[in-house]
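TASK: fixed-backbone design
INPUT:
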C-alpha cells in the first residue's frame, strides 16, 4: 500500500459519480415560524457544473477534496455523513475513501455540499449493491439537508416545505447561464437571519407568484424565464455583501437577459439567450472587476448518477 494513500486497499472496484449544482430560478420565503424555520416555495434548476466523486473500498473511511479550500473535513463533510447514515439505515457497507473533484463553489448558494451528499448516497448504494430505489435514497437524503433530494432528482422541480418536497416541472427550455463567483461565501443561516431583520425593519419587496415562472418554463422562451427570476433572499445577501449590486448591474450591462442571486448567495446567475451569448457575457463580466471568476453552465442537468466506465478493448 502506497504511503501517500494509507486508507486505500491494494486493489478493488470503485465507482465514479457526478452530481449537479443548482440555481433557484425562483425562491419565495415565508415569515419565520415559531420553530425558527421558514416555509419555502422554490423552483430548482440543475446545472451541468458538477462535482465528481470517486468512491473506493478502503481500510478506513476518509474524504479528500480537490481543491480543499473552504470544504469541511472529516465528520463535518456531508459526503462522509451521507455514507455513515446510509450504512446505519441499511446495516450494510464498509469503509470507503471518497475523493471529491470540486467544481461547485463552496458556500456559494449552489448546493455543492448537498450535491456531494447525493453523490455519496448513489455511489455507495451502487458499490455495496444495495437494492434501493430513488424514493428510498431521497428519504435518507432528506435527513442530511433540504437540498439533497433535488441533487438526487436533478432536472427542474418545484420545491415546497423546506424545499425538500419536490414536484417535477416540465419545461422545453434549454437554459444557458453565466455564473459570477464572489470573493468569500455566505452562511445560509446568516442570510435567513438578515432577511428576518430586514422584514422587522420594514418589508422588502417580495417575489411574484410562482405561477409566472412555471408558465415561462412551459413556454420555453429564455426571455420570459429571465423576466420571472426572483429570490426573496437576494435583498439579504446584498445587505451582507453590498458589492453584489455591482455584479448584478455588470452582468445585465454585458448583455444577460436577467440575473439573480442563487439561493442564499453569493453566486450570481445570469441567464443568457443562447450559448454564444453566454460566452460573450462571460468574457465581458470576467473583465469587469466585479467578481472573482466566472463559469458558463447550462441546464437542466440530470441528478446524481454513476458514471459508466468504458470497457477496456483488447
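OUTPUT:
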Amino acid at each position: 500500500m502506497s504511503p501517500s494513500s494509507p486508507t486505500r486497499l491494494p486493489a478493488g472496484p470503485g465507482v465514479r459519480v457526478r452530481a449537479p449544482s443548482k440555481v433557484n430560478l425562483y425562491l419565495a420565503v415565508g415569515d419565520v415560524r415559531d420553530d425558527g424555520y421558514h416555509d419555502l416555495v422554490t423552483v430548482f434548476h440543475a446545472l451541468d457544473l458538477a462535482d465528481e466523486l470517486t468512491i473506493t473500498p478502503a481500510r478506513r473511511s476518509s474524504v479528500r477534496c480537490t481543491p480543499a479550500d473552504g470544504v469541511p473535513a472529516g465528520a463535518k463533510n456531508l459526503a462522509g455523513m451521507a455514507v455513515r447514515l446510509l450504512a446505519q439505515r441499511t446495516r450494510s457497507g464498509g469503509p470507503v475513501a471518497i475523493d471529491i473533484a470540486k467544481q461547485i463553489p463552496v458556500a456559494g448558494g449552489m448546493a455543492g455540499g448537498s450535491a456531494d451528499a447525493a453523490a455519496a448516497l448513489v455511489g455507495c448504494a451502487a458499490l455495496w449493491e444495495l437494492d434501493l430505489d430513488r424514493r428510498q435514497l431521497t428519504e435518507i437524503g432528506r435527513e442530511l439537508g433540504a437540498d439533497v433530494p433535488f441533487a438526487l432528482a436533478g432536472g427542474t422541480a418545484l420545491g415546497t416545505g423546506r424545499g425538500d418536497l419536490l414536484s417535477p416541472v416540465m419545461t422545453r427550455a434549454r437554459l444557458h447561464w453565466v455564473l459570477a463567483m464572489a470573493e468569500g461565501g455566505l452562511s445560509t443561516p446568516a442570510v435567513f437571519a438578515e432577511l428576518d431583520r430586514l422584514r422587522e425593519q420594514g418589508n422588502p419587496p417580495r417575489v411574484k407568484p410562482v405561477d409566472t415562472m412555471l408558465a415561462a418554463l412551459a413556454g420555453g422562451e429564455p426571455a420570459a424565464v429571465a423576466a420571472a427570476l426572483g429570490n426573496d433572499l437576494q435583498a439579504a445577501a446584498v445587505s451582507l455583501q453590498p458589492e453584489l449590486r455591482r455584479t448584478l448591474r455588470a452582468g445585465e450591462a454585458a448583455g444577460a437577459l436577467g440575473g439573480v442571486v442563487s439561493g442564499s448567495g453569493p453566486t450570481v446567475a445570469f441567464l443568457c439567450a443562447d450559448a454564444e451569448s453566454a460566452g460573450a457575457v462571460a468574457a465581458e463580466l470576467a473583465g469587469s472587476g466585479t467578481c472573482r471568476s466566472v463559469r458558463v453552465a447550462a441546464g437542466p442537468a440530470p441528478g446524481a448518477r454513476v458514471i459508466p466506465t468504458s470497457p477496456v478493448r483488447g
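COMMENT: Residues 175-299 form a domain with the Alpha-Beta Plaits fold (CATH 3.30.70.890).
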